[in-house]
Amino acid sequence: MSTSADPTDSSLPGPQTWPLIRSAITSLPLLRYRLLGGEINVVKGVLAGLVAHDRDEPLDVEEWTRIVLYDLRERNGLNLRALRQHQAAVAVTRSRYPFLNTITAPTLVIHGTADAFLPIEHGRRLAAAIPPARGLWLEDAGHPFPYPDMPRVMTAIMRHLDAANPG
Q: Which of 32, 63, 80, 157 is deepest in the core (most CB within 10 A)?
C-alpha cells in the first residue's frame, strides 16, 4: 500500500514538493485543535481534515472517533521518533527489484493516483516487477492511510485474500 521497491530510483519521479507544501498549508487551520490539546480536540482535527478533503462517501463519525482514540490511547498518537526512523530507513534503502520476480504469492499492490510522496509510477512499477501481482489504483487518493473510499479498498483486499485461499 503506497510503497515502492526502490524509493531512491532516479528513473521514477520522487516526492512532489509543491503538493506536500500545499497539503501542509491547508492543514494549518486544523492545527488549532491539536494546539488546544486533549483527545476531543484531536478527534475534531481529524474529522475536520476528513470533511475538508471532499469525501464521496458519508463520514462515519463514530468509527473515525474510535480509530483516533485507539491511535491516541494504544499507539500514543503520532510517534515522531518512529517517523524519523522511517525516514532514515528510506534514505538508506536499496533496490528490491532484483528479488521481486521470485515472489510467487498472489500480490495486490494498492496505490493512490494522487500520491505526492511516492507517485503512482512507484506502485505501477512494483506491481509489474512481481509476476503474480495485480494493482488497485485509487483515483485521486494520496499517500495517507486510510484512503478515501475505504469500503471499496477493504472489499478488494478481502476478495484478494479469498481468491488466494479458496477453502
A: 157
- pLDDT tens track for 73-128: 776 665 667 667 777 777 777 889 999 999 999 999 999 998 888 899 999 999 99
Find out whether 121 and 4 touch, Cβ atoms under 8 Å.
Answer: no
Pairwise CA distance, residues 68 & 141, whole Å: 20
Identify the CATH number of the domain defined by range 17-164: 3.40.50.1820
How far is 6 from 63, CA to CA, in rounded Å? 34
Please say whether the beta carbons of 59 and 51 come within 8 A.
yes
Pull the grid cell for residue 53: 478533503
Give pTM, 2 decimals: 0.65
Question: Could you tell me which of 122, 126, 150 has the C-alpha nearest to residue 138?
Answer: 150
